[in-house]
Input
Amino acid sequence: MKLTILGGGGFRVPLVYGALLTDRGEGRVTEVVLHDLDDSRLYAVARVLAEQAATVPDAPTVTATTDLDEALRGADFIFSAIRVGGLEGRANDERVALAQGVLGQETVGAGGIAYGLRTVPVAVDIAQRVARLAPDAWVINFTNPAGLVTEAMSRHLGDRVIGICDSPVGLGRRIATVLGANPREAFIDYVGLNHLGWVRGLRVAGRDELPRLLADPDLLGSFEEGKLFGTDWLQSLGAIPNEYLHYYYFNRETVRAYSEVEKTRGAFLRDQQAQFYDEMKRPDTAALTAWDRTRAEREATYMAENRETAGAGERDADDLSGGYEKVALALMRAIARDERTTLILNVRNQGALSVLDTDAVIEVPCLVDANGAHPVAVAPLPDHATGLVCAVKGVEREVLAAAENGSRTTAVKAFALHPLVDSVNVARRLVEGYTEVHPGLAYLK
Ligand code: G6P
Ligand code: MN
Output
């Protein structure tokens, strides 16, 4: 089984490789191909992987290339985890938006639109190459903004592209754990778009346990989302939102907090990672140790400003170990070995959420087997959530249209229609600001 990782010089690749090393079963991945545009990043990550594999017999082989077509040919699975414009681009996404008083997060609001506008054309090119060179491969998309990018790729790959995110999985695990249930035995009734979904129920042995959680302020306040949103608001909603909804429900506070920080998240990661990749150029660096230290610091500071505005304190130790690599591995195993399982994934709607058309990519529990991911029909969302989902899907569609027709006017429309952008004039200035700093947006005329 051959797995190709696009963005193979990326910082989180060792997480994926670490997960592969735990898989000893029949039909496991035996060959990993890393693809990246940057040789020195490939070299750095390959060093970490070599140290990870050192004590593991029959570890998957690792090769690296900067030739995309060569990387794709013969792949059974393709992970796409690219970052168009790098972390410098992410920092610019934040800076330009904050200068206009709106949010610049990489997946939410203006920042997500800017990042989407420069990522979609690249993702579409990849999808077209996959369709030509590796038509039987399954593509697992981690590239943010994951829902939008998955939808762009699905127009060329149909249901052979599946988007993943660890946020809903982490949320489900936390809720199950505080309720004293085994996360593996619980069915999480969750639906929405990527980074824009709600848990409306959690069934164990056929019984919905969520009302018990919502009725108990102590339990509610004991985990990440309870601390972030506050127990009163969760009780009012009657659901537990994905952590990224903090940017919507507490927009004013999060924009202020991000405007006041010395370094935004993107700028922090840009500098932190630059240091890591520099260290990797020195032959005497203990690669795995340096990577692990950098990773721990990244995890500990995740959404720090949001937690600060909410007075949520430090992250729980259990939340620091990531998890997206586990979703990726579970998905791959389910497909490759027909090991049936249920996972929350980003797939074409196909009627599961009837308010959106069948091709709209949504985030929803799916039954996964050798035939791919099949969304489970879910109960409708309440009006306020339907409104947000439809508005943001409308924005995503404008981003896809702008990427296709290269029109600035369409790009302005995408920004202006976003619920977190409060004026058409702001949208116009955003397009100006972003096209000035991002070479990847030069196609907008
Ligand atoms: C969560 C999100 C991902 C995101 C990751 C890292 O897991 O679901 O989409 O990539 O956090 O965020 P960071 O701010 O550390 O890049
Ligand atoms: Mn995510």
In short: The chain has four domains: 2-164+323-333, 168-249, 251-310, 383-441. The radius of gyration is 21 Å. Residues 251-310 form one domain.
